Write the structure tokens for this entry.
Amino acid sequence: MIVIKLKELLKDRGLSKTQLSNLASMNLHQINKYYNNDIKRLDIDTLARICYVLKCELGELIEYANDEEIWRDK
């Protein structure tokens, strides 16, 4: 499972979703999907924009969580 840690990064940086939306030239709906970890497919351009604005590495934004129960159920 991939976990997007946008909520934590925004809090650490003191930025709102609206500010990120403006600075990254992205629509707020898209930011909300990343913020709520409700993304089905990651877009590398979007990830790059977010990392650029937040001045972070990709590994700070996304994390792999080994959830064995998810894989056993499939």
